[in-house]
Structure formats: structure tokens, C-alpha cells
Amino acid sequence: MKILLFIIITLALCFVLVLLRYQITHPEIIRGTSTIKYKLIDIGQNDFFRYSFESLILKRRRVFLKTAIRNNDWIYVNLKDFSKLHPESPIKMIEKNYTITFDFQIKRLVFGGYSRAKIISIEKINEKPEVSKS
């Protein structure tokens, strides 16, 4: 019984530490503007653990940026913002000849990386979207 309790406490502590790892931020706000880079297959970005944690537990999605912000090629956004940034299939967007550009705010995480982005404004522009397979 004591071993089971110890295992449960250890797992809960690990979960809390991981949660804090991706939530504690610096107060400095970083503002940016970028265009969406659509990737049809989202694998192999060297952050499998964070991607799994963000998508499965925190329900956030990764959005790729056409112009990197401080050496960061992607940001995480909540599901509501993700649906605004990906209104339809990139293939249909190519046919309709438009893409999405947006303004956002992020903060640096204390232990490295960036926090979830807060989307400020979204605009459709008449330009062929950048789409890649992976």
C-alpha cells in the first residue's frame, strides 16, 4: 500500500513539474507579425515531448511561422485561434489564392521556449499560401 501511494505521489509531482515547466514566464511581452506556413504533416520538430503535452493535455496546437520570431519557427495557440488561422484546407486556400497573416503576443518561458501565443488580429491577404509536406 505504501509503495502504491509513493508511486502515485511521484507521478503527480512529475506532472506538476512538467506543467510548471511550460507555464512560468518572464514578464517581458514579445510582439510579432507573421504569415502562416502550412505543413500537411507535423512530425519531426525535435520537441515531441512538449508537442504531446501541449496537444493532449493543454489542448493547444502548433502553428508554423513563415518568418521565424527569435529563432522560433512555430508557436502554440489554443483551439479557437487555431481554427481561425486554419479556416479550411491549405489546398482549397491555394485554389482561392489567399493566406492568413496575424499579429500575436508571446512571453519567454523561464526554462526556455515560448508561452502560448495570444492572437491580437487576423487578416486574409491575396497571396498564395506556403504549403509544405513536412
Description:
Strands 1, 2, 3, 4, 5 and 6 form a six-stranded mixed sheet that branches. This protein is 33% helix and 40% strand. The mean pLDDT is 88. The protein is an alpha+beta fold. The chain is elongated and about 65 Å long. It is built from four helices and six strands.
- The shape is elongated
Question: By helix and strand content, what is the structural category?
Answer: alpha+beta
Average pLDDT over all residues: 88
The counted number of beta strands is: 6
What Rg do the Cα atoms give?
Answer: 17 Å
Order of helices and strands: HEHEEHHEEE
The major pleated sheet works out as: 6 strands, mixed
The CA-CA distance between the termini, in Å, is 48 Å
Q: How many helix segments? A: 4
Proportion of beta-strand residues: 35-45%
Uncertain segments of ≥5 residues (pLDDT<50)?
none
Helix content: 25-40%
Characteristic key phrases:
alpha+beta; 6-stranded mixed sheet; 6 strands; elongated
What's the quick description here?
This protein has 134 residues and is α+β, with helices and mostly antiparallel strands.
Topology of this protein?
Layout: H1 2-21, E1 25-39, H2 48-57, E2 60-69, E3 72-78, H3 79-85, H4 90-96, E4 99-109, E5 118-125, E6 130-132
Parallel strand pairs: 1-6
Antiparallel strand pairs: 1-2, 1-4, 2-3, 4-5
